[in-house]
Amino acid sequence: MEITMEYYLVISTIMLFAGIYGFITRRNMLAVLISIELILNSVDINFVAFNRFLFPGQMEGFFFTLFAIGVSACETAVAIAIIINVYRNIRNIQVKNLDKLKD
Amino acid sequence: MNFLSLFVLIPVLMLCGLFMTRNMKQIRWICATGSSLLLILAAVLTFMYIGERNAGNTEAMLFTASAVWYAPLNIHYSIGVDGISVAMLLLSSIIVFTGTFTSWKIETMPKEFFLWFCLLSIGVFGFFISTDLFTMFMFYEIALIPMYLLIGVWGTGKKEYAAMKLTLMLMGGSALLLVGILGIYFASGASTMNLLELAEQHIPEVMQRWIFPLTFIGFGVLGALFPFHTWSPDGHASAPTAVSMLHAGVLMKLGGYGCFRVAIFLMPEAAKELSWIFILLTGISVVYGAYSAIVQTDLKYINAYSSVSHCGLVLFAILMYNETAMTGAVMQMLSHGLMTALFFALIGMIYGRTHTRDIREMGGLMKIMPFLAVGYVIAGLASLGLPGLSGFVAEMTIFVGAFQNADVFHRVMTVIACTSIVITAVYILRVVGKLLYGAVVNEHHKQLTDAVWYERFAVIVLIIAIAGIGLAPLWVSDMIHFSVDSLWPF
Amino acid sequence: MEYTLLILLLPMLTFIGLGLFGMKLRPAVAGCIGTLSLAVTALLAYMTAGQYFLMPRVDGAYEKLLPYNFDWLHFTENLQISLGILLDPISVMMLVVISTVSLMVHIYSMGYMKGERGFQRYYAFLSLFTFSMLGLVVAPNIFQMYIFWELVGVSSYLLIGFYYTKPEAIAASKKAFIVTRFADLGFLLGILLLSFFTGTFDFEALTSGDTSVFSGAAGVTFMGASVMSWALALIFIGGAGKSAMFPLHIWLPDAMEGPTPVSALIHAATMVVAGVFLVARLFPLYIIAAPEVLVGIAYVGAFTSLYAAVVACMQTDIKRVLAFSTISQIGFMMVALGVSGMGGHEGTGYMASMFHLFTHAMFKALLFLCAGAIIHTIGSNEMSRMGGLRKYMPVTHITFLIACLAIAGIPPFSGFFSKDEILSATFSFSPVFGCFMSFVAGLTAFYMFRLYYGIFWGTPAKHEHTPHEAPKSMTIPLMILAIITVFAGFIPFGQFVSSDGQPYTIHLNLGVAIASVVIALIAIGIATYFYKSKCDIPERLLNMFPHFHRAAYHRFYIDEFYLFITKRIIFNCVSRPIAWFDRHVIDGTMNGIAYVTQRASVLIRGLQSGQVQQYAFVFLLGTLLIVLLVVLI
Questions:
Q1: Could you give the residue ranges of the DSSP H alpha helices within C457-586?
Q2: Which of B82, C498, C518, C559 has minimal CB crowding within 10 Å?
Q3: Checking phi first, is residue B162 left (phi over 0); if not, alpha (psi -120 to 50) or beta?
Q4: What is the per-residue pLDDT for C188?
Q5: What is the b/e burial string over B256-278, where b = at least 16 CB atoms within 10 angstroms of the residue's CB?
């Protein structure tokens, strides 16, 4: 069986919606963070797939994916730092408790 | 580089210098040197300007220079002066100079205070030297913003409220102004922002009719146009001394100058057509401010309302639309700037001693602090238009000019404006009588001391300027008159 | 006559010098400097007068000289103010009057003000006043006159309020300034109108008699009167304010709160006649352009003189009596100007007015200085505290008597000649008017002798220490002024000053002269009978008309009326509502806008819950919605 582009796209779509669902429903900030990672990775898969199947001669998709992975690593680092600080301040990491900025 | 840029450069250098200061002595040294340099520069500029004119140079703007700043929108940093801006620059430099000396002993965060003060000066000087609409607007904003912090942090009384109110109202004005400026730019063909070039491009009258009110009110808010003047009493009352001086003395003139330079100069047809509305409003300002001042009990409120009245006269004269009245308007700006700065300086000094500004709680200060009291009397006499002091010259020029309009409406408004000289006498003499004469009301006041050297210095400089213009007005009047004449082909 | 500039410069420099450095000098030194500088000024004024009146006449009239005139300020092409010196008969005459009285007052004050706090300041202000008054009379254009007019007002304000710790003095100075300022508004508007239609400020052009000057005003009317009438009437309002004409007289009696020499100088001899001088200055213009205004001036003057004379009869404060007497006498001068015509015999009134101005300045200054000497020793202004002073103060007594005889119009004292000219001018205007003015003249004699007997005769009041004659510095000016008062009547005044400049020989109108002397003698007789020794007739008379007496004593409640207008109407019905309106309506609107904005933002803020997941959900829905829209459309 030949694995066509659609397979990749289906997987990435499932990942994306899982991520979005997780982002909206999870209470724990770490879980929210993981959901974001899911979304990002689904996009990465898309990039790579498109590059591989539609523009085989070029490398932009791969490089962009590499950048995205790098950026998401940084973002995760920052996010976890924030989460740790939030924990220090309010002793939990429930998302619903974080609405102080509205004031 | 054109030497006019020094007016902006010197405050910028002062700003940089202030960042590096570590103690009060250095701060004072930098401020005193910088403001003296500015004063000297303004004096030199005046002499050079008059020299050029005497040599027969009849161009509208002298010492012009221009540098492209943002080409796609035709924004240039273009500068130049005529008689009107020279007068204003002279005024600003005198007030910045004396303002520095009145804040000689400021205690809370002196460095930050003077930093903002310098930024304010940059805005003011930049505004008066610009001939480009956009640059002008930018400097205008630069002058407004520091006011918020200066009042909010160093003020007294309801300072947060006053600072917020002042800033919001003035920002509201400048929002109208921005729309007006964009309107002017696009209505005139979107090819230039330079004032002189804009004046040659005719703005269609349909456009003028809605741009004119926008710009006039926009600047008018700063010029205490009724009913947009209410920031002034609260703002002045809460501001620290030097800021009150600079604000009433110079910043309010930005409004008058802007109305003159932008609103009337660029849109003469609409100005003539719509002037009656604004003549009514300014006429009300003149009398209304004076009547309100009669019953106030806070020294600064009295002076703020008096400023409403006097600045109303400036806008009133501009709208009279003839060269005599307009010359008078500029002279009134000059005169009122000096006079009100003197008033605020003295009020600040008195407040610094008695810790009250309520005239009911003071009395007999003539005996306790004769120098300040005499200064106050002189300021009062200037305000009520005593010949020999600047107020008289300006007011008379305005009245004679306004009276040249021969129709009944202008006549009636002129007569109404003239009555303000009587009302002014009432409130000035009331304060002088209550505050300075009579018996000492508060026993504690007997231990108070008279002015010290830096205070005396500031007061004397201002009095000399007021008397100088009042005794020999011809050079100022001619300088302004020439420019008014060359700007308008009446 | 280049030195005339010094006449102005000397007092001004003295003012500046004493004002800046006076406090560093010893009081006596400051006084001497002031007096010396004024003595020089007076000498220069006499020189000017001598030289001017000895000049050959041109076409029978004295030439008008303009030794100085420099540009001061430009308004329009035509309207330009210049400051200068104009010498013509009346300005030279005024120079002499002002410098003489001022010099006397300077000398007198050395004694009177001795030991007062602020002695140096006093002399500085006196110099300022003299400077402004001299500048006023030599003004070659109406705007310079206005400039000095204002300066005179301010120096008067400063001098009335000299005792600045005394509440009455502060109130009086404020009142004087504001009332005259109100009148000056009229003056200013008059100047604006006049200059707009004539295109000039210059007296020379205005009074040349050339009607083309105001041809611009021809046919322009406002509310039924021609513009020129309006302008000149407004200018007269200015003059009426300074000259204390009814109903703008209210400041003058209160102005007596100032030091007495100041009253002598400013409120008797010089400043208060500025209005008369102003009308005289513009007299040709009044005659040609607005004769009806001139008649109005006559009526105002006549009414004022009667009113003030009646009130003077009831006052008990000697300075107040003198103040009302001044108002009454200025009324006489105004009447004389009002009834005058132009040229020759017609112009008697003009000449008489100036003549009376001259003699009145001398004898009224004398009266005030005598009053000062009395107050100085008694320490009170009230007549009830005086009586029988003739034994203690012989010099003051004699000089006061001379002045009283002069003002009553008894020959050969100066007042007789000038008043007689005024009366004959009014008689030739209308006999009824003449009789009226003669009656007022009789009243004058009556109240002056009431004052005289009240002070110097009758039973002496109890004094803490025996009254004594004033020091030499005070009595010498009294004697000099008394001598002038005795002999000034014989000056052939008409030779120097007349309406058209031609010499005019004064000849006594015998009928009028005899009648007026008889009236004066009768009035003096009545006063003698009433007041010389104890007599109950005045008491009984007063009891017969209690309301009239009370009303006259309270100056017919004019002051109360003004007080009502200013305190109740201006303060409470205009200013307070305006201030309230400003704080609550206009400021309230601004605050209201701010409040509404704030409330609106609180409402909108509900959308921003702070829940990140909620935001994300809305975001997602929004995206889907847009996608759907794009797809569907």
A1: 472-487, 493-496, 510-531, 537-544, 546-553, 558-563, 576-580
A2: C518
A3: alpha
A4: 92
A5: bbbbbbbbbbbbbebbeebbeeb
Q: Is the pTM of this model over 0.90?
A: no
Based on the number of CB atoms within 10 Å of its own CB, is C217 exposed (0-12), middle (13-18) or buried (19 or more)?
Answer: buried
**Which residue in A51, A40, A52 sits closest to A15, CA to CA?**
A40
Q: How far apart are CA A14 and CA A19, in angstroms?
A: 8
Element (H or E) spanning C85, and its range? strand C80-87
Read out DSSP for C136-164?
Answer: HHT-SBHHHHHHHHHHHHHHHHHHHTTST
Q: Are C240 and C251 in contact (CB under 8 A)?
A: no
CA B306 to CA B312: how far, in whole Å? 10
C-alpha B12/C-alpha B37 separation (Å) is 13
CB-based burial label for A83 (10 Å; 0-12, 13-18, 19+): middle
Which one-letter amino acid corresponds to residue B461? Answer: V
Q: Please list the alpha-helical segments (H only) found in C315-430.
A: 318-339, 348-378, 394-408, 414-429
pLDDT of residue C476: 87
Q: What is the mean pLDDT of chain C?
A: 85
**Residue C564: pLDDT over 90:** no
Pairing of strands C80-87, C225-226: unpaired
Query: H or E segment at C38?
Result: helix C27-54
Residues of chain A found within 8 Å of residue C622, distances taken between Cβ atoms: none
B-contacting chains (≥3 CB pairs under 8 Å)? C
Contact C612 A24 (CB under 8 A): no
Q: A5-102, what's its fold?
A: Helix Hairpins (1.10.287)
Supply φ then ψ for residue C285, to 5 degrees.
-70, -45
Q: What is the mean pLDDT of chain B?
A: 87
Tell me which residue has tokens 């309270």. C554
Number of domain units in chain B: 1
Q: What is the mean pLDDT of residues A35-60?
A: 90
Name residue B81's beta-bridge partners.
B62
Its domain, for residue B54, covers: 3-487
Q: By the 8 A CB rule, do C294 and C264 touch?
A: no
Q: What is the DSSP string of B236-269?
A: HHHS-HHHHHHIIIIIHHHHHHHIIIIIIHH-HH
What does the H/E/C string look like for C314-342? HCCEHHHHHHHHHHHHHHHHHHHHHHCCC
For C9, residues 6+ apart whose C-beta sits below 8 A from its C-beta are: none
> Residue B367 corresponds to which tokens in the numbers above?
């005996």
CB contact under 8 A, C616 and A99: no
What is the nearest CA distance from B325 to chain C, expressed in angstroms? 9
In this complex, the residue of A23, A96, A99 whose CB is nearest that of residue C616 is A23
Q: Which pair of structure tokens corresponds to residue B92? A: 């600003």
**Residue of higher predicted confidence among C414 and C607:** C414
Measured distance CA(C220)–CA(C3) in Å, rounded? 44
Residues B134-159, mean pLDDT to the nearest whole number = 88
Confidence of residue B466 (pLDDT cuts 50, 70, 90): very high
B48 inside 8 A of chain C by CB: no
The predicted pLDDT at position B196 comes to 82
The alpha carbon of B332 is separated from its chain's Cα centroid by a whole number of angstroms, namely 10
**Those residues with Cβ within 8 angstroms of residue A72's Cβ, 6 or more apart along the chain or in another chain:** A37, A40, A41
- Asked if residue C181 lies in contact with residue C151, where contact means CB atoms within 8 angstroms, the answer is no
Q: Locate the chain B residue with the closest alpha carbon to C161.
A: B437
Q: What does the pLDDT read at residue C216? A: 67
Position C464 scores a pLDDT of 64
On whether any CB of chain A is under 8 Å from the CB of C620, the answer is: yes
Question: Taking Cα atoms as reference points, which of C218, C236, C217, C222 lies closest to residue C142?
Answer: C236
Contact indicator for C369, C477 with CB cutoff of 8 Å: yes
